[in-house]
Amino acid sequence: MVRVAGVPPGQVAAVRAIPREEPPPEPLPIGRNRNLYNLQAVKIYTKTGDSGDTGLFGGTRVSKADPRVAAYGEVDEINACLGFARATLVAADDQELAGMLEHIQRDLFALGARLADPGHKIADRVTKAAVVPADIARLEGWIDALESALPPLGRFILAGGSPAGAALHLARTVCRRAERAMVALLAGDKEAFEPDLLIYVNRLSDLLFVMARRANQRAGTPEIEW
Predict the structure, then answer these.
(1) The model's pTM
(2) Can you give the pLDDT at residue 55?
(3) 95 and 212 in contact (C-beta within 8 Å)?
(4) Which of 36, 42, 98, 197 has the largest count of CB atoms under 10 Å?
């Protein structure tokens, strides 16, 4: 018999309980059950375009090489370029340009939606998917305001300068490419989209050039003439 030190005869020594091993917490659900907080999950992949076609507004399916898809794809690329340019505008005095870019990005979503709508029906269902003459006039007003603060330009300048200026110059060239894609779409269908869309993109490329110059001016980066 073994006696535990410090315990009177006839009594049982208290034994510390052995902690029970708890199972690990269950991982957060994924896939079909990932709407844990009653949020409707939207799948990133749909597999509907695996054969090289895509859907337009209204349900029509076309090849991803279709001129209409190419046109709104280029507009989407402008939008991404502007998002990058906006991310480079960190100084307090650049917030004016950042606000302009955010507004333009919203316009471009509307413009892309119109290009993806061959039946011209989206405006009846989505009120913010509109590009109207007032939007074009706003771009022209911004051009005039920004240009008034810049020195006159007598020669071509090389694209580049500050990070923001270079990003805006790049966005300008992508904008010109989108304009060409839209003109190509019109070559096959004169009523492919509303005339205001092409005018907007044309003005936008001019605005981005002026914005690039203004961003470089604010950064104290001199322009390099050709």
Answers:
(1) 0.78
(2) 75
(3) no
(4) 197
Cβ 56 vs Cβ 68: under 8 Å: yes
Distance between CA atoms of 120 and 18, rounded to whole angstroms? 73
Pick out the chain residues at pLDDT < 70.
1-42, 91-93, 123-127
Asked, for residue 31, whether it belongs to a domain, the answer is no
Query: 95: domain CATH number?
Result: 1.20.1200.10
**Cβ within 8 Å of residue 197, ≥6 positions away:** 111, 114, 115, 131, 182
DSSP one-letter string for 188-209: H-TTSS-HHHHHHHHHHHHHHH
Which residue range(s) make up the domain with 204? 53-219
pLDDT at 151: 94
Instruction: Please tell me the predicted confidence (pLDDT) of residue 6.
Output: 54
Residue 74 in any domain: the answer is yes
Could you tell me which residues are beta bridge partners of residue 55? 61
Question: What's the total number of domains in the chain?
Answer: 1
Q: Is residue 84 part of a domain?
A: yes
User: What confidence score (pLDDT) does residue 157 get?
Assistant: 96
Tell me whether residue 94 is in a domain. yes
Name residue 211's amino acid.
M
**Each residue's pLDDT tens digit, 35-75:** 433 445 667 887 777 778 787 777 788 888 888 999 999 99
**Backbone angles phi and psi of 53, in degrees to 5:** -120, 170
Beta carbons of 216 and 223 less than 8 angstroms apart: yes
At residue 44, φ and ψ (nearest 5 deg) are: -75, -40
Q: Are 130 and 124 in contact (CB under 8 A)?
A: no
Tokens of 144: 């005039």
